[in-house]
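Blackboard transcription, Thursday session:
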Amino acid sequence: MPNPDRPHVVANPKPRDLPAPSVEEPVDPVPPLDPPSDVAAPELRSATGRPVRAAATTRAQQGAFLTTATGTRLRDTDHSLKAGRRGPVLLQDHHLREKITHFDHERIPERVVHARGVGAHGVFVSNGAAAKLSRAAFLQADVETPVFVRFSTVLGSRGSADTPRDTRGFAVKFYTSEGVFDLVGNNIPVFFIQDAIKFPDIIHAGKPEPDREIPQAASAHDTFWDFVSLHTEAQHHTIWNMSDRALPASLRTMEGFGVHTFHLVDEAGDTVLVKFHWKPAAGVHSQLWEEAQLTAGGDPDFQRRDLYDAIQNGALPSWTFGVQVFPDTEDETFEGIDLLDPTKIVPEELAPVQPIGTLTLTANPTNYFAETEQVAFHPGHLVPGIDVTNDPLLQGRLFSYLDTQLTRLGGPNFDQIPINRPHADVSDMLRDGFHQHAVHTGVAPYKPNSLDGGCPFHAGVADGAFLEVPSPVEGEKVREHPASFDDHFSQPRMFFRSLSPIEQEHVIAAYTFELSKVTWPQVRERQLAHLALIDERLCAEVAAGLGLPAPTPDPDVEVQDLAPSPALAQIVPGATYPVAGRTLGVVADASTRTADLQAVVDAAQAADLLVFVLGPHAGVADAADGTFAVDKPLYQVRSFELDAVVLTTATTPAADVPSRRDAKVGSPDHRDVGVDPRTLLLLSELFRQGKAIGALPDAAPALVQAGIAEDDPGVVVRGDAAAVTEQVLALVAQHRVWERLSPVG
Ligand code: HDD
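(Written on the board underneath:)
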């Protein structure tokens, strides 16, 4: 316990929005909690858009007492109704049967892809720049639109880890005044296939193999590489998957892409073609492969937790929404790039991304199942001013997302689930069906009618009706694609050659690792032949890692040397990014002076970092002259949770320590003989991961024991507590100390 007469240091990031429980189970009934007002479900509406009940009564728990599903109060929920204390259970026990029956049916099918996800509420504020291109109400200047965002991995099951090498989903539901607009994108701007009819093939190949159901959430296996090496249009997405993009450091540091080209339509009906982009304010950052592997074991929920903690602590994640704009020409190409081919990007150097608004995530969901699990996105949820194109991948998606909800959400009324309900009036004339919640009024759900006064009426353009872009269509029915879809290697080459040297090394290492997991030599060799077409060095180094000869490029395949696109590189020398929401661990123990600890905490919190004090045990720990609250004990914390560390401990110089083996954890005086071995492990991992390391002067010998020299890059040992912290924060702003990770040569 802290002593009121001695200093006590508390950093404590805000954990969860829950009232503190009492030690004993409370005995007095109290009314149930309201959901936070900013995440309350929208009002329940009838199909004519009128509220059918007061919003407060849509709360799941309405009273102080436990009841059956039909509201009868219950005296006991711990014992079945039995014939005598030791007797058999009676069939008459309705409460038992209702409780177990409901439980038996709690699970719904997980999403067939993107099953693992996490959501958040937010707001989109338009800056009006798109108003001249689109009549969409939510794109007019300064309009604020509520949104719900769900991020996901693609391949893993609902319970899989957050951090596999995989594409991430980035789906945004805009609850606009003109209806729901869903932008169902990914963090990678291209896709594996050009036609939706191939979707079951790529997903069957990528998912765990059907005989053993392994590997979970990973592409490093035979069937994935068998498919992508045979189906070469997948090569562009695959090289993005082998890059750092497939290992986002946090969901807050990912770019998002609408992938397809869409139409924007203005008031006059004039159109342009656009590609949508989300650019994170925090910068685009990734984990290292070692970090991702550690994370999957140490905290498989890491990214879910990171998003929750950031929002909870006010480090609100935000993205600039932008568009690349192209003239809507008859051939639907730009600078020779076919805009209907979802395996191609348009480099930002050719068409800059123009900001049209800002998305900020402001609130965590109240209930995971009700919101994140039941949210249903659909690329066909469009509003006036935005329309689809003939991209054959997008066209197939327009069918799939409606269809899948029938199984997943149990019927056609999923739009009535609170998280899916539009904030615009709904008069849809759709009736009945499983889980119908609306109490429809009127007798004439058909058009034309006179019995309901002709209601509802068709809208004209002036009333905000949605009009499809009247693009001319002609041609014979064929199962073919345009010749412009045939170049599968020029853009993968451009991507690889646009990356920084460190990122290129990561791509080489990723291909080598993944292909080493492929058991069929034929599949490895086939993929190596494709790497030869992408880049000779890439192919040679992967081949060396696999112990295979590097093939020569197939002379019959024409690959263009496109100009590199610097915008594709994540690691830009000298670039800095906001540090708000990044994490700092501060190691303290009984040798720490509370004034030093407080100074580090204050300096980091002033820059809006999440600060975790790391101590020898949970609870309150002793400092040299007081106490401090431990946020994460050293036996719990791992390097992947931290962006940087500062040591405030005093340690015996290394020369005076007889042996590292003497520093046994738990021995009463282990701190007198050296550094806690858990601190040494943390330091060595953080060092390898290129993270900033600070030490107050008395703690500097600990670095030596961890094999770190004071003049190594990204190591700070000069100055007082505040000065060391400032220097560490400057390093965090670079994301990593890249000099430590530079590729050899
Ligand atoms: Fe898809 C879910 C993104 C192609 C069929 N997809 C889903 C989600 C995202 C994407 C982010 C998760 C939504 C959520 O959080 O609920 N999908 C994409 C992108 C694609 C793409 C960016 C290509 C550019 N998808 C695609 C095709 C098909 C599907 C070609 C089918 C022909 N996708 C689905 C689905 C899912 C889905 C099976 C599973 C759950 C759901 O829809 O609601 O219908």
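Lecturer's comment: Confidence is low (pLDDT under 50) at residues 654-673.
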